[in-house]
Q: What sequence folds into this?
């Protein structure tokens, strides 16, 4: 697959965009006219810069409102086009995007549109330029790719072909199977964008909410599958108008974009596998990556803190046992059955407690690491002494380090590198890590969803929004099919997140247990500071559910939250927040699948109140 990207997808100057696209590994770019107009470089300097970076300039765009007009307007449009052809010759670009007319068309007649495009084709031929005619989803008379193709067929000129744009096709619900009926030689260009499902007019949807493949709801592997079967082998270019990407760091967005194409290329290959009609002469080459099975479990969570004592205390209060210090690193392990927390003492004594890494059990750690690196994950260098297990690791977009642990039935090998090999004394009913909430920088949320899906085969669940006193918190659960690994990605309102790196919004680790009342009672005895839950909540709970009065009293007494649905009941409580982290304990009775979403607003409001009170008192505990 020849990869390309429109400069409009990215933030920064044209020079910055070209450098970022080259560094991310794109083969070429589309020059968006606005980027050229505001650039002080001459067209020749832009051409030379791209060539020096190894990028082809694949398309100049957009040329608007050409066809379906009266004779006088047509002459003006041809003059306008000729100036662009001369410019394109200076840039060394041989293909121009011609969008279906949205504004000045007055003649709804395919023969007229075709004749006018033919005249444009004759003019373009003199400059060695090809025209890729694209049906915009909101075109005045032409909004369907098969209609655009019929006009191209009627125009019948070697320099007039079509451009297929997945957004314009899938947003209107047109069946992409029709792509296979277009001769590949007449598909001059292909643009890809994904988008979330929204009830919005198609123009606003397109201009603000396009995302990279894999970050939205469109079936793009199916779309590219039709393209492959058509025999098309030209550039596959990302054209994504997105309000957030235009503000995010250009180099990161370019890597996110390239990751999406690599992932899509592999998905298409899997989609076509075993279909004998898929293989044709000159078939587009598709990526193959080492396969990865979903992780089996969260092996450990690592917390880093300048002062580890408050974290150690919280875990002790929840019934965890210290398994001693690591033989060569400044870390301590605390466990309760399969729940393992590694506490790392940060070098800076002032460093706030925060989640720094997750260990995930995978069937084939080497394959998973290799896959992640091919998807441009940043590897984490490890230092280890002789005889210690080396775990491969990479960084997620939110900065969390992901360690790949070989799945084992009993105690993992790495855990034996800690001081105490004695079994836990009287472990409680916490059984393991149920889920982990990772706060995401607002400008990298879509990237994070694709990252966790593409590198670890976690599947996105429908996203939710939860009200907090400072705005809505968006929550997106990424889950393994088995449910053993659940990551909840949270994007906090920017006001929470002054630094813009997600650090203003606390993360949490939730432990699963089989008897939450027992865990809570032990915690009370050991002096745990629970997140307080207001009485109004319990009165509402009594009204919503027909609860046993004794259970309601226990919930109230222990600051437990409650939810119920068709699958069962959910009981949970939260600790106070230390630095940027708190813990949750949950009990699922027996098959409840959610996370107590109706209770999230209660938690957020209580945490907000405490955070304000503690800040006023100058205490680091929130
Ligand atoms: Mg387009
Ligand atoms: Mg939770």
A:
């Amino acid at each position: 697959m020849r990869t390309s990207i429109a400069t409009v997808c990215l933030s920064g100057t044209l020079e910055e965009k070209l450098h970022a696209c080259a560094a991310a590994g794109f083969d070429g770019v589309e020059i968006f006219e606005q980027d050229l107009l505001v650039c002080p470089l001459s067209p020749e300097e832009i051409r030379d810069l791209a060539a020096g970076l190894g990028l082809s300039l694949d398309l100049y765009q957009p040329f608007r409102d050409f066809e379906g007009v009266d004779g006088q307007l047509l002459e003006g449009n041809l003059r306008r086009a000729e100036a662009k052809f001369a410019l394109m010759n200076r840039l060394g670009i041989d293909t121009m995007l011609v969008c279906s007319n949205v504004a000045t068309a007055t003649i709804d007649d395919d023969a007229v549109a075709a004749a006018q495009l033919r005249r444009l084709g004759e003019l373009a031929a003199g400059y060695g330029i090809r025209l890729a005619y694209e049906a915009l989803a909101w075109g005045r008379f032409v909004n369907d790719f098969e209609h655009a193709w019929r006009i191209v067929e009627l125009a019948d000129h070697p320099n007039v072909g079509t451009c297929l744009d997945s957004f314009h096709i899938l947003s209107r619900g047109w069946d992409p199977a029709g792509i296979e009926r277009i001769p590949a030689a007449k598909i001059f260009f292909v643009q890809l964008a994904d988008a979330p499902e929204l009830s919005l007019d198609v123009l606003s949807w397109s201009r603000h909410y396009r995302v990279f493949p894999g970050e939205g709801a469109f079936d793009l592997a199916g779309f590219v599958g039709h393209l492959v079967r058509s025999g098309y082998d030209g550039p596959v270019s990302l054209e994504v108008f997105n309000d957030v990407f235009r503000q995010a760091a250009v180099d990161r967005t370019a890597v996110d974009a390239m990751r999406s194409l690599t992932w899509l290329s592999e998905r298409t290959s899997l989609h076509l596998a075993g279909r004998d009609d898929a293989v044709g002469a000159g078939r587009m080459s598709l990526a193959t990556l080492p396969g990865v099975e979903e992780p089996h479990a969260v092996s450990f969570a690592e917390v880093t803190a300048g002062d580890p004592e408050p974290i150690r205390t919280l875990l002790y209060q929840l019934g965890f046992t210290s398994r001693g210090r690591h033989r060569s690193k400044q870390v301590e392990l605390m466990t309760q059955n399969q729940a393992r927390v590694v506490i790392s003492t940060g070098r800076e004594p002032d460093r706030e407690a925060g989640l720094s890494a997750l260990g995930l059990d995978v069937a084939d750690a080497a394959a998973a690491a290799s896959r992640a690196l091919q998807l441009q994950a940043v590897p984490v260098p490890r230092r280890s002494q002789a005889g210690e297990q080396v775990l491969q690791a990479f960084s997620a977009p939110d900065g969390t380090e992901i360690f790949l642990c070989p799945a084992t039935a009993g105690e993992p090998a790495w855990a034996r590198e800690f001081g105490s090999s004695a079994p836990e004394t009287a472990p409680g009913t916490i059984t393991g890590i149920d889920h982990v909430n990772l706060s995401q920088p607002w400008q990298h949320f879509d990237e994070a969803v694709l990252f966790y899906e593409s590198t670890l085969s976690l599947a996105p669940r429908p996203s939710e929004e939860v009200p907090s006193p400072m705005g809505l918190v968006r929550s997106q659960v990424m889950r393994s099919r088995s449910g053993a690994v659940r990551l909840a990605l949270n994007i906090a309102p920017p006001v929470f997140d002054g630094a813009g790196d997600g650090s203003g919004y606390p993360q949490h680790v939730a432990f699963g247990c089989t008897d939450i009342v027992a865990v809570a009672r032990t915690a009370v005895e050991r002096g745990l500071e629970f997140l307080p839950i207001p009485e109004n909540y319990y009165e509402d709970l009594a009204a919503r559910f027909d609860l046993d009065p004794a259970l309601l009293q226990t919930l109230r007494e222990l600051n437990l939250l409650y939810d119920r649905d068709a699958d069962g009941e959910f009981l949970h409580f939260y600790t106070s927040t230390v630095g940027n982290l708190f813990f949750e304990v949950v009990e699922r009775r027996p098959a409840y699948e959610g996370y107590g979403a109706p209770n999230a607003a209660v938690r957020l409001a209580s945490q907000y109140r405490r955070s304000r009170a503690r800040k006023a008192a100058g205490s680091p505990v929130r």
